[in-house]
Amino acid sequence: MATAQAAAAARPCFMDPEAAAKCSITVSSRQTIHFSHHRSQLCSLSMNGCQGDSHLPLGTVETRSFPAVPSPSLALDRLSSAISELKSNPPPSSSGIIRLQVPIQQQIEAIDWLYAQDQFLPRCFFSSRCQTGHFSDLSVDHTNGNDQNQSKHKLVSVAGVGSAVFFQDVHPFSYRHWKSLKRFLSTECPLIRAYGAIRFDARANISSEWEAFGYFYFMIPQVEFDELEEGSMLATTIAWDNALSWNLGHAIDALKATMHQISSIVLKLRRQVPSTLMLRNNNIPCKTYWDLAVNRALQKIRSNSALIKVVLARSSRVITATDIDPIAWLACLQVEGENAYQFCLQPPNAPAFIGNTPEQLFHRKWLGITSEALAGTRARGESMPEDLEIELELLSSPKDHLEFTINVCDSVQVEPKKAIRKFPRVQHLYAKLAGRLRSEDDEFYELSMSIFQFDILSSLHPSPAVCGFPTEEARLLIAETEVFDRGMYAGPVGWFGGGESEFAVGIRSALVEKGLGAMIYAGTGVVEGSNASLEWDELELKISQFTKLLKLEVPLEIKS
Fold this sequence. Notes:
Helices cover 28% and strands 29% of the residues. It is α+β, with helices and mostly antiparallel strands. The radius of gyration is 23 Å and the shape is globular. It is found in: Plastid, Chloroplast.
């Protein structure tokens, strides 16, 4: 289960870069990839918010906005001055969280900024979809403070380094943890958000490659770069709680140390395939064992058991001739990622969990909530007529229709309209689910919304799309069958905010570390009518967005 390293996360986190570089990870009973950190990485000091009193509200929750500046370097200077001013005139509260933000009159991509920070940990990245992004419309002053009219700008993606406060425990994510996290969020400060992920199965043993993530890992970034549709924004967040032996002075000193490492020189990252050759690719399970596992699942489905569907997964260990930089790789995935979420989460002393997932778990904004169901997978056609032919075959496939109806009927009573969602390499059956929560009395609104946000997450995960149906029967079969640890793969990945939250499903993902290759994950649903060899081919298709890069195939579209 969780190790001493995860237990250490239950205390305020004081990281020494040299000691961190010597970290090695023990071997668990599952087949694992071993990440030994052989080089120095810069890590920020922080506190673990899970150890605070969740019933005691913070004394100060505030966002301070400053006039727009022309460049990242000027934004960095303005924030540094604001931090010094805060230290000279501190608020009297014994606990609090303050966000300082400066708009930038340049449109800079968040992933380019993150790449420029060169291995500063922890770090995170979350990007909304090109077509259906739900990130907030923000009122941002890009006028140097001379114009009272603030314009609306859609938040496209967020990158962050360092943690003002992180959330991790040696126990699975629970309502108690959610209350500890919610303590640092406010509807009055909508951009103070906790980004992170939760394990697919909290009851499964944690293997060595996932140890640093624990059962869950969330972070409110110390330094954050927000990419807007028009312009950008640089922000810092300071959090403190005297009860956790982490006062405002400690928080400011830690933030200053982080700020000294921030690069204000941001160059556009080239969206091209890395010159990387794949030396070895080891699948867990191998094809023979996969065939046995799928056939065994089909036998259970055909027996008198309640099982209707199970999603079986595979991990592929890739060894490359040269380094894979996880951020550079994620930038290449963005080229393939229209209508998908891109994410990266990397705690201290951990590999990077990156992904390009097409599937939304849920998005909640005030009383509105949406979710999605994806099922069935086909390749795209080489011509428009062939692509349409494949689309019609997918729409009329009895096996894929069965998988589709299972994915949606566990959560709604009325079967939604079936459609096709297309991506550069694949296409899926797709349905969107939407609803509105009942309004509550003002006195109970905040409490009910707090409970409901946790209930949404716990009720929707794991969904039939990544686990099966019924959920518990499918989960047990997965635990009996799979010989690797899914970790955060197929788990919720996203962010919590004061009045809004959004989570994707952590599929089409990989665990990556420079110099040590990657573990690439994919899964497929097994229902009546499934064929083991065809399901294996579907796995290959799903991981092709990663492996095609390694095989030096140029993506379908290159950004200029």
